[in-house]
Backbone:
């Protein structure tokens, strides 16, 4: 998470970004943090599993063939 000082006025100016802290925080395209009404604190989603090593790799072959077998053309299984 970074902070940047800004100057508002006739011309917008942004200062150099400075690192506030690092961590395994979720970084996806939705709002994953909330700022307190006073602007002094915020809440962030943490994903500690994000950086945990894994020894398992799942490879799916013939995905579309399997999908067609499970969901025939024309609709869903009843």
Residues:
């Amino acid at each position: 998470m970074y902070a940047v000082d800004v100057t508002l006025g006739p011309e917008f100016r942004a200062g150099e970004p400075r690192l506030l802290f690092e961590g395994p925080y979720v970084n996806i395209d939705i709002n994953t943090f909330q700022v307190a009404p006073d602007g002094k604190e915020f809440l962030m989603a943490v994903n500690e599993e994000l950086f945990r090593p894994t020894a398992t790799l799942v490879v799916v072959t013939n995905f579309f063939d399997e999908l067609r077998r499970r969901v025939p053309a024309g609709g869903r299984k009843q």
